[in-house]
Design goal:
Blueprint: E1 3-5, H1 8-16, E2 41-43, H2 53-64, E3 71-73, H3 75-81, E4 85-89, H4 99-106, E5 114-118, H5 123-136, H6 140-161, E6 172-178, E7 181-183, H7 188-194, E8 209-210, H8 213-219, E9 223-226, H9 233-238, H10 241-244, H11 253-256, E10 260-263, H12 265-269, H13 276-287, E11 300-302, H14 306-313
Parallel strand pairs: 1-4, 4-5, 6-9, 9-10
Antiparallel strand pairs: 2-3, 6-7, 7-8, 10-11
Helix pairs in contact: 5-6, 6-13
């Protein structure tokens, strides 16, 4: 089957089934082989990696309000690929090309591919999408096998944290954008709960949305994690002042106790694919450090070490994509 994917999480899901898409989005970079596939999408956002979080947010919102929208499809390339199926999303039209844009492009090509939308708001939804795509691609057994493996890893974390009382679960805040402040939603509340924490700022399945800083101060998180959508660790380092220069930042319990972390939001927290399990495995030692070994350094790092990371990577190419919207 000739499959085209229009967002990174779809590419990772298809790859987990042992398949290689014949075409991908301009944002797809994992597995590494995805970078060599033709890109069928483009972004209309012109912000580069030096742009501030506020500037990126402004450009995304302004472009989203235009008739053209944030993304476009290279119809000529899509036509040349002759896809049998296109895996896309209906979750957010400023995070990636959405189902409506794909349907319009399909009307203009000679092939008649099946459009396979995804709209996950929980880890369970992500695993269901894996099996659904597996059925469409005639990889049902492989999908079941992959799901069993992912669920086994999830269960290994949940088993170790299930006995914690509310008093033993620190208050956690995870930001998926930092100017304006947004609290990560969808699957994040479940991940924090499974990691042994309390996520009092959003319910499971709730969408990400802007929050007032005073709300964060009143919640007074004991653990803070910055994981902006589209940002890797280097770009979080460049935008760290979005948080550290806010009134009352130094008074937060998480700051006073040195429990502020940066987590690669681009590749992990904000990609609803198989690597959400890796995200949980990185969150657990941040939330319950006495119970788990520390997270991999390429996924998460303490916030007070970001200055060194920024200096170390200055002038190198980052894989983060600032055009990604801050609300998945």
């Amino acid at each position: 089957m000739r499959i085209v994917t229009t967002l990174p999480s779809a590419t990772e899901t298809v790859a987990a089934l042992g398949l290689e898409p014949v075409g991908v989005s301009h944002e797809c970079d994992y597995p590494p082989s995805a970078a060599s596939a033709p890109a069928v999408t483009r972004s209309r956002i012109e912000a580069d990696e030096s742009a501030s979080s506020a500037e990126i947010d402004r450009q995304v919102l302004e472009t989203a309000e235009t008739e053209a929208g944030v993304y476009e499809i290279d119809v000529e390339t899509l036509d040349d690929l002759e896809p049998d199926a296109i895996v896309t999303q209906g979750m957010c039209d400023v995070c990636a090309v959405d189902e409506a844009v794909v349907a319009d492009a399909v009307d203009r090509i000679s092939a008649d591919p099946e459009i396979v939308p995804t709209d996950p708001h929980s880890v369970g939804d992500v695993l269901d999408d894996l099996e659904r795509i597996g059925r469409i691609a005639d990889r049902e057994e492989r999908a079941r096998e992959v799901r069993r493996g992912l669920e086994s890893r999830l269960e290994a974390i949940r088993d170790r944290t299930a006995g914690f009382s509310p008093e033993d679960r620190p208050r956690v805040a995870i930001f998926d954008w930092t100017d304006p402040i947004m609290i990560a939603g969808h699957w994040t509340a479940d991940l924090v709960d499974w990691a042994g924490g309390t996520y009092g700022l959003a319910d499971a399945g709730e969408r990400s949305r802007p929050r007032e800083w005073d709300e964060i101060r009143a919640y007074d998180p004991e653990v803070v994690i910055a994981a902006p959508c589209g940002f890797g660790l280097e770009q979080i380092a460049r935008n760290g002042a979005d948080l550290t220069e806010r009134d009352g930042w130094d008074d937060l319990t998480a700051v006073r106790e040195g429990r502020v972390w940066a987590l690669d939001g681009d590749h992990y927290l904000n990609r609803p694919g198989p690597r959400l399990v890796d995200t949980l495995e990185a969150l657990a030692p941040i939330v319950q450090p006495a119970l788990f070994d520390g997270p991999p350094a390429d996924i998460a790092t303490p916030f007070d070490e970001l200055d060194g990371l920024e200096a170390e990577t200055a002038g190198t190419d980052s894989q983060s994509r600032p055009e990604a919207d801050p609300s998945p």
